[in-house]
Design a protein that fits this description.
Blueprint: H1 7-11, H2 32-35, H3 38-50, H4 55-65, H5 79-90, H6 105-122, H7 127-136, H8 144-155, H9 160-179, H10 222-234, H11 238-246, H12 255-268, H13 298-316, H14 324-333, H15 338-357, H16 360-364
Length: 380
């Protein structure tokens, strides 16, 4: 019997297992767009002709193509996308998925330096004393004396509200430093002398089965609840500030810039403009943390992504590029096979949906007024 596009055929397919954080996650009956998607129909038909799908390919779909970090972009961009291409080319599933809630030790150490500065301010230490200690530790590449001086100036006159907001922010940042994972970090390398929450996490694992989502665990600790109860009494806009502090994930491309904006908000007593609730008028926050090297120029990121999708499409349809990113993609994918072509087309469809409906738009369609970083975009 020939191929027939139906709910049953779709739901039995491997192609149905990679639509996390897209409208297709709703399923056949609740998503008319899915039923009408001719590209998806072709992909399922390709899979039907290729059966049985190799185990390695099915695992790449479930763990890698299902979780490319674009719904919530990742600071290591474009590394995670190229690693998926490498997995397809080598016909080998990823050992570790660099995506949601994953951060390397160098980035954690950089955040620890800023956490130290804020902790020194909270302790009542002068800016020069804080800078002297951090420089004695050998932290390179940042003018820490200028950072501390400017941060102290931004935070301004002390108050119970400011101190409690900084304390709450510090607790959350320490939690991210401790709870985010990497190839060599199983939540067992940083902040081991502090209980900040249950590190087992709960819920989705984002392609890394050993590590469940850590977002909520820290919020449930008695210490955090006490701080937040007092903040709800002191802070007139606590709900908005609560959300901003909670969403300081260190894996985000502009995590350090967001920290900068939060410190400004705390020090100046300003409401923070967020993508979910933008303000008509908001302060232009200067780069007083000197952290522009930790995030990219989003215009370069958007240009790279467009070229990457084009390279994948061309390879899947038989083109042999000889230069630029397209040539690099071709080399990584290696010999063209029907299974690889199916996987690449599936990846293109997934990335296309994510770029349209997710927070990836913030990375790929940057606001004109957004601050540009200088972390290079390119091939690792």
């Amino acid at each position: 019997m020939g191929f027939q596009w139906s709910k049953e055929v779709y739901e039995e397919s491997v192609s149905s297992q990679c639509w996390y954080c897209t409208p297709y996650e709703e399923g056949w009956e609740r998503c008319p767009e899915l039923q009408a998607d001719d590209e998806l129909r072709q992909l399922v038909e390709m899979e039907h002709q290729l059966r049985p799908i190799p185990v390695w390919a099915a695992e790449i779909v479930a763990r890698a193509i299902n979780y490319p970090p674009l719904w919530c972009p990742h600071y290591s961009y474009p590394q995670p996308y190229l690693e998926i291409v490498d997995a397809i080319g080598s016909q080998t599933p990823l050992g570790f998925v660099h995506g949601c809630y994953t951060v390397d030790s160098r980035r954690k150490a950089r955040m620890q330096d800023y956490v130290f500065c804020l902790d020194a301010w909270l302790a009542g230490v002068g800016a020069d004393d804080a800078a002297n200690e951090i420089m004695r530790r050998g932290c390179q590449g940042v003018d820490w004396r200028a950072v501390c001086r400017d941060a102290w100036e931004v935070l301004g006159e002390r108050s119970e509200l400011k101190e409690l907001l900084v304390e709450r922010l510090l607790h959350r940042e320490r939690w991210w430093i401790k709870a985010m994972v990497w190839d060599d970090d199983a939540r067992d390398r940083f902040c081991q002398d502090q209980y900040l929450g249950d590190t087992t996490g709960a819920g989705d694992t984002y392609g890394n089965p050993r590590f469940a989502d850590p977002y909520f665990a820290e919020l449930e600790t008695p210490r955090v609840r006490r701080m937040e109860a007092r903040l709800s009494e002191l802070c007139p806009d606590w709900q908005s500030t609560w959300g901003a502090i909670n969403d300081t994930q260190l894996c985000a491309p502009k995590a350090f810039r967001f920290l900068e904006r939060l410190i400004w908000s705390i020090g100046k007593g300003r409401k923070l403009s967020l993508p979910s609730s933008p303000l008509e008028q908001s302060d232009v926050v200067p780069g007083f943390l000197r952290c522009e090297d930790t995030y990219p120029d989003q215009r370069e990121a958007a240009s790279w992504f467009s070229a990457f999708l084009t390279a994948l499409r061309e390879w899947a349809h038989g083109a042999d590029a000889v230069e630029g990113l397209a040539s690099e993609v071709r080399c990584r994918l290696g010999e063209r096979t029907p299974v690889k072509a199916w996987l690449v087309r599936l990846l293109v469809r997934k990335l296309g949906l994510l770029s349209r409906v997710s927070d990836g738009r913030a990375l790929l369609s940057p606001r004109a007024e957004g601050k540009r970083g200088r972390m290079p975009i390119g091939l690792p």
